[in-house]
Queue: 2 jobs
Job 1
Amino acid sequence: MKSNKLTNQAINNIIGRHVKNVRLSHKKSRNQIGKAININPRTLEENEKGKYKFTLERLFFIADSLGICVTELIPAKLKGRINKNNKTNSDKNI
């Protein structure tokens, strides 16, 4: 039976693609976002490709630069799913 658990790499890829799509829907270039949040556009490109993991801080900065809520940068197919699939033993006690 195939596991429905998402790997960290899969999560990085899904979030990266979504962030790119949201950025493009707001008609913003990587250069514009990079300048607004003080990062190299190449770093943003690597984030969007899933090569680098987005930090929560970076997602907040991107959302702010786009004038949106950070939750809009989390794809619908991941909302609620990450916590269900990646619980640790300490999470079960909460």
Note: The chain has one domain: 8-80.
Job 2
Amino acid sequence: MKLAAELTTELNPSIWSKYFNATGSNEVGFNSFLTNLISVIITVSGILLLAYFLYGAIVWTTAAGDQKKLDEAKKIINNSITGIILVVLSYFIVGLVGGILGIDNILSPIFPFPK
């Protein structure tokens, strides 16, 4: 026979557990929220930097010998490569800090489907 608290938990699951906890329990941990947030930030910044790099490549190809546009394109490409390097370094730094703090799965996002 289940306790009343267990039945209440099963019948009324926390809305946050649908999005932040893949185990099916109602415990919402800061670790899973932080993991999801970090993975979203790194993914979005990587996509934006790739688009910025492609924009620089388009500016370069459409410069048609104009030195001012070539310099602008070089600056855009250099900035995007610097950004990509910073994102990759931040990924490794977050993994290192997570390991030191005991958050082993900090780079393993959990995006479960709602129940």
Note: The helical segments are 4-11, 15-20, 30-61, 67-101.
